[in-house]
Amino acid sequence: MASESLLADIIIEKFMYHMPFYHVIQKYKELGVVISSSTMNDWYAAAYEKLKLLYDLLMEETMTKRYLQVDESTIPVIDNEKHAAVKGYMWCVRAVEENLVYFYYDMGSRSFETARKLLGSYHGTVQTDGYGAYNQFETYRNIQLLGCWAHARRKFCEAEAEDKTKAMEALSFIGKLYKVESDAKNRAGVLKSCRK
Description:
- The structure is a single chain.
- With 196 residues, this protein is of the alpha/beta class.
- It has six helices and five strands; from the N terminus they run αααβββαββαα.
- The longest helix has 32 residues, at 164-195.
- The mean pLDDT is 91.
């Protein structure tokens, strides 16, 4: 029987440090603990079933919030046919104001359909990096799309080569917005410390 701490360590090694189970098995073997791959897979499957309820609740709670940030990031995924790692995608959904976050994996897909499964029934504001899969929500009445200033700013940096004057003017305005945000965060921090 695996203890909670052992199961937590195995899951952290796999998902936080991206270690395949055979590396985790080797790590324990070097510590004098022999665990077969079938045992580790069984433990993982059992832990997954127990944790799935918490994941589903976290996802439900996050999707009720009025403002989400969504991004898809690459992760290495083992392709059993190629016997090699290929690029897959993990979607991150974050309710900023409530400090909630969950990750969504759909067989490594970055498709428009995956975005629709993830956000199609959502009601609220979604901030993204402008990836084309999110454009489909422009016609949804229940979703208001926001862009990401960091990505917009990057385009103005790239535009300096074409029209430096206009690009610098836009970057100046974006800088002023960043300053307002910074001042607001500092003011909120001061108010919070005054209340203690």
